[in-house]
Sequence to fold (179 residues):
Amino acid sequence: MTREDFNKRIKKVLITKEEITEAIKIAGKEISDSYDGRPILLVSILKGAFVFMADLCRAITVPCEIGFMCAKSYFDGTVSTGTVAITMDLTQDISNYHVIIVEDIIDTGRTLSEVVKLLKARRPLSLKVVTLLDKPSRRVVEFEADKALFTIPDHFVIGYGLDCAEYYRNLPYIAEYGE
Ligand code: IMP
Ligand code: MG
Fold:
């Protein structure tokens, strides 16, 4: 894809880099204050949440560990088909941790309801979900995050880890995508 083709599909910046930084600073402080002294494991869902995880963990000022899982939801273009596969699992036992799932976006709710079901069965000390973005109007499966940094309308978005056909993850902001 040429630079021109890449740029013309970035329709509108929805959330700036500065707005993201500010919201993460607040979320990091909240986590640091409420989990101080407890064993924390941040679990990020790859690939989409890798940028959010990198910034959120650096906004946390108490000891914490990090882990990664890979969940793939299948897309037909920009529309979810409803199938979720765990293609890479955690390597650690989570039963001695307060687990915080760090997700990029909750759309239909299918991915997180599957991941939460799986992790709860492993009996962590507690389990919470923090998501950068929430698109509540798109829910197919009932699911609510403990914390959503931004609630957005039903529009396919890219950037800050989120992709369209694997591109655009490297944008430092969240934008609306359009052909
Ligand atoms: P779910 O539909 O809630 O299971 O969301 C599944 C995954 O789809 C998310 O973790 C994202 O990786 C991806 N996704 C959902 N909506 C968008 C979007 O607007 N842009 C990019 N990826 C999305
Ligand atoms: Mg994702």
